[in-house]
Amino acid sequence: MRPTPKNCLAWITAVTVLMAGCTPSKPVYVNDTGALDYYVDQATSIEYPDVSVPSLEEVNSSRPPITVTDPDFDSFVDMTLEDCVSAALQNGKLFRGYGTPALQGTRVLPGQDTVINAPNAVGTIYNIAIRETEPGAIGTPGQLSLPGSILTNTQLDSNQGVEAALSQFDAQLTSSLNYTKSDEPRNTIPTNPNQPLVFQQDQVQWQTEIAKEAANGTQLFFRNVNVYTANSNPVDDPLTPNDVEGFQVLDSFYRASFEAEVRQPLLRGRGAFINRMPIVISRIGTDQEIANLEAQLQNFVTNVEIRYWELYSAYRSLEAAKTGRDAALQTYRIVKDQFDERSSVNRQQVAQASEQYWFFDAQVTEAFDTLLKAEGQLRFLLGWAANDGRMIRPIDEPLFAPVEFDYCTTVCEAMTYRPELRSIRWEIRKRELAVAYAKNGLLPEMNVTALYRFLGLGNKYGTSDAGTQYPDPGSGVLNELYDGNYQELQLGVDFRMPVGFRAELSNVRNSQLKLAREIAKLEDSELDVNKEIHETLQSMAASLRTATSHFNRWRSSKIEKDVFDELRNAGVETLDVALDAQRRLSQAEIAFYQSITEYNKMLALLHRRKGTTLAYCGISFEEGPWPGKAYMDASEYARRRGASREMNYGWSRPEVISRGEDFPSNSNIGRKTGETMSYSYDGNVSGGVQTVPYNQPVYGSPAMLQGDGMIPANVDSMHPVLESAPELIPMSNTTQPESDVQVVSYEEPVVKQPTTQIRNIQRRKLRARTQSTSDIRSEQTLSAVPAVHSAESTTKRIPKLKKSNSSATTNIDDDSIPVNPVRMNWAKVGANSTRTSSTSTSSTVGRIVTKDIGDN
């Protein structure tokens, strides 16, 4: 048989296709130009996101930095500490200085204030709202959890807001519409009148259900079911007589029903205490977020104050370095003139005087660079540009009055208001609830079910105008349904129990171990806070004592320098001794201002470690507005609760988890109102701007400092008496009056039994001695002491940094620096003058003892 052309073409095509399939080839494109400039042969190259967020104006308008070689700027901006705190809180949505301040020896170091290195650790004003709106796990809509089902500890720990937890009790609406067409052959004889050989049916089912879970675990269901059916089964029509009986009355009919079902757990999952547990735990998570944010806000405010005093100290150090440099320059010129006149001065002395000048010139450069860095750090906390042509200049003076804090009250405040401890206590309360929740899982699952149904059947959907009833043709299904002629009832009990409860017991043990861990954390955290209070009080006393010593050193160095200058001019004393006196005078001045600023930083740190920084500064969290309906509902619930009658059974279930709001008292502020404070304070924390509410958890573990027995009955003075003092310290015959110090233990939440302990503390004071009038006049103004800041003090002995109206340009040239070595205002004190004595404040616990500089 010869192959036909069609067969040949088929074979050729098959062979060609097989050969092409075995030979690799590149695809050919019609518009292929060969331009592959955009081709990138790397999969992990650095790419940049397509995000366009406008930068802040402070970033775009920032000028080049001020340096020691280019120190020009436009003007000074004088700011108080209160202005700095206010600007820092207003200029930003992040807490830039969120790090915790640290204490290193007698120095207070500010906390971390960088954002770029750890942006996720920075607190923001959105944190609480984000925590409140965490969705958690979104389940299938319309489905309720099985009655008696519980969550594990891991599921309870999942981030979930209150609204997401409340969604468990939301009503669930489901509706379904299904159409089914059947065409089924049957294994039957053709002559069977009741079962046709081929069964055909059209069926439509529409079901609507609304379900809700109550707070006590009860599940409620209400559903409506409508079914339309039309099939091929024989119909027994009485109007058509035949010998075959039909299988059904109607060839098509509707079935409608209303059902109400109740499922009630009897053992596991029963009761509001268990079912509302996830909601309470979610709310505790929000309270913990508030405590964490409050801790960062307290760090932020404290760091602003620390940076403020560091900038103040930098200005003072720069002034002292300038003063020393000017004095060294003057000495150098005198020595140089004497050398040029070929007097007794040799070249070595000229070089020595020159070295002194260049030493102080380097000190000025370093001090100015330190000032620029301190000003830049404060600018960052304020949210200002790195350089906008202005220089921040502090105008508040540091406090130099001894401040006393009652130890017991201070520790009690720290244990109560420290946000870190409050967060741990909330965690303990959460773990206690988790233990109770897990123990409920040890119960078997036993549920009672009840179902009640109304139903009807008819030839058409709707009502029959003629009142035809089933089984007559033309009957309406709604007539039958509304008449209630057909009702059904179903009751049932189901019981399930795992043999051994292995998973449930593991869940309970896990929750108990987590509770024990948190209690251990709280115990050591309280110990750590107590240690911090001790360290801060010790460092405060050391800083004040050091400042007093440096002040006396400064005064002695000034006397020594003046005497050596006179002797040097008279040719009696050598040059090296005079130069050394100049250097020690400058160092003493710098050390004094550094120590006094450290003392003020200690005061701010103590308030931070007590947890009362926000209340002391009058700072509070402000909540955004709620919808108007929420205020109406809350008002209605408040009226309902106010009109109700309380039934006191001694305990409640669900039990109380919070002790409500608590505000720090102003009885242990440690400072007085007026100019003695770093910033203004009206003495009333509850007036004006409301302070932060401190919601305290109620938990079962014992609290520190509980009851009378744990509060010492006698507290020794924290200020030791000096048995001797340098002769240059002016003394007087006045003594401090005895004070009645009232120690009040906090009622809530640390001390459950409020106790008041009044004791008289005998505090020994130095007897001041006054030098004679001739001695004071011989010392001129050097024997007076700067008055401390007190309510009676009207003269500030530590002057404010003076404003310069002539030129705002910082210049480190020698001829442009005015010489004022001491930089203090002095007042003459007569032999019979009396100094300011201690004045008791309205506080009976924390008070300021105003003494002379040399008294302690």
Automatic annotation (TrEMBL):
Residues 764-816, 830-856 are annotated as: Disordered. The keyword Membrane applies. Transmembrane segments: none annotated. InterPro entries: TolC-like. Its main location: membrane. Residues 1-20 form the signal peptide. It comes from the Bacteria. It is found in: Cell outer membrane. GO terms for cellular component: cell outer membrane; efflux pump complex. GO terms for molecular function: efflux transmembrane transporter activity; porin activity. Keywords: Cell outer membrane, Membrane, Signal, Transmembrane, Transmembrane beta strand. PANTHER family: OUTER MEMBRANE PROTEIN TOLC, TO APRF-PUTATIVE OUTER MEMBRANE EFFLUX PROTEIN OR SECRETED ALKALINE PHOSPHATASE-RELATED. This is Outer membrane efflux protein. Residues 833-844 have a biased composition (Low complexity). Residues 769-783 have a biased composition (Polar residues).
